[in-house]
TrEMBL record:
This is Glycosyltransferase family 4 protein. Pfam families: Glycos_transf_1 (PF00534). Signal peptide: none annotated. InterPro entries: Glyco_trans_1. GO terms for molecular function: glycosyltransferase activity. Keywords: Transferase. Residues 168-317 form the Glycosyl transferase family domain. The lineage of its organism: Bacteria, Pseudomonadati, Pseudomonadota, Alphaproteobacteria, Hyphomicrobiales. One of its GO terms (biological process) is lipopolysaccharide biosynthetic process. It comes from the Bacteria.
Length: 346
């Protein structure tokens, strides 16, 4: 057995795609002959305080062997800290930090510079999509052949039953600017008298100003009685929501992969998705209606076409459910990560 350390900032139970990926790797990698120890870093990343940076430096400088660092922290670590680490560094990049929507220009540029320098310190780099690998090659001076792609696994589940009305929409993702909920609200406002309801599942405490603005948009559009926020939910609560949905919608400006897309596909839901980042390629074209990011008119048209046409909904659902067995499971994802922890890209 090989021992390694996985450094992750904040609470590992946080219900986001990135943390879910980390939880699955910790759970599954033991079957690959790796003992992976979880090291908790301060929760202020990617904008750590001076005290948190100093604490992180102390924690990481004590380690030997192999150190896997989650990208939420890795991309924000200055070279002065990374150079003090004796362990072999493996970076896990979910998506470049500078691509988070809503950052000011100065913050985005600072993160871009930090992450570009940090990546030079990694002996191996793991990303969760081909799209992110291409971005690192084109914008961060990382040779494509040095990057391993370990796309998220997908569990096989039973097919969604639906609401019985054909009008229940579901969106899953933290309520933050990158997820494009303001575009979704504008699209829904264009649907006229069509019957629909929307359930939004995701943390509401990460971008309070955005949440307030979004609620104001909903109120102004007269949609507050049709849109329900559940807040963050644990993993075990999600299957029942997928099961009761009729259409899954993702309005993101950018996705490093989009795990919720493959979860919806596995449940056999018809999907409407933007093409922001890796979301353009996560699903086969036949399994989803894809529209440009930040285009409420196109999003509204796609949603209307499914709300109006039960036959089309069923056809998309059939393709989605039949395609799901082609997706990798988490043991395959863990095997790729384990290979990088052992010896890096070959």
């Amino acid at each position: 057995m090989i021992e390694a350390t996985f450094a992750i900032p904040g609470d590992i139970t946080t219900p986001t795609g990135g943390y879910a990926y980390d939880r699955k790797i910790l759970r599954c990698i033991g079957d690959q002959g790796i003992v992976l120890h979880h090291l908790v870093l301060p929760d202020s990343f990617p904008f750590p305080s001076v005290d948190d940076l100093e604490a992180t430096a102390r924690l990481l400088s004590r380690l030997n062997g192999t150190l896997l660092i989650d990208g939420l922290a890795f991309g924000a670590l200055p070279a002065s800290i990374l150079s003090q680490i004796e362990a072999r560094i493996v970076a896990l990049v979910h998506h470049p930090l500078a691509l988070e929507t809503g950052l000011g220009a100065d913050d985005a540029e600072r993160l871009r510079i930090l992450e570009r320098e940090a990546l030079k310190a990694a002996s191996a780099i793991i990303v969760t999509s081909e799209t992110t690998a291409a971005i690192l090659a084109s914008d961060y001076d990382v040779p494509r052949e040095t990057v391993a792609v370990a796309i998220p696994g997908t569990a096989q589940v039973h097919r969604a039953v639906g609401s019985g009305t054909g009008h229940a929409l579901l969106a899953v993702g933290s309520v933050v600017p990158r997820k494009g909920y303001e575009v979704l609200v504008e699209a829904l406002a264009r649907l006229g008298n069509r019957p629909w309801s929307l359930t939004i599942v995701g943390a509401m405490d990460r971008a309070p100003d955005y949440v307030r603005s979004l609620r104001a948009r909903i109120d102004e559009a007269g949609l507050s009685d049709r849109i329900r926020f559940t807040g963050a939910l644990p993993d075990h609560a999600l299957p029942s929501l997928y099961d009761k949905a009729d259409i899954f919608v993702l309005a993101s400006h950018f996705e490093g992969y989009g795990m919720v897309l493959t979860e919806a596909l596995a449940h056999g839901l018809p999907i409407v998705s933007t093409t922001g980042g890796a979301a353009a390629k996560t699903l086969p074209d036949a399994a989803a209606l894809k529209v440009p990011a930040r285009d409420p008119a196109a999003l509204a048209e796609a949603l209307a076409s499914l709300l109006d046409d039960g036959k089309r909904r069923r056809a998309l659902a059939d393709v989605a459910f039949s395609y799901a067995p082609n997706l990798p499971d988490w043991s395959e994802t863990a095997a790729i990560v384990a290979a990088q922890l052992r010896h890096g890209k070959t």
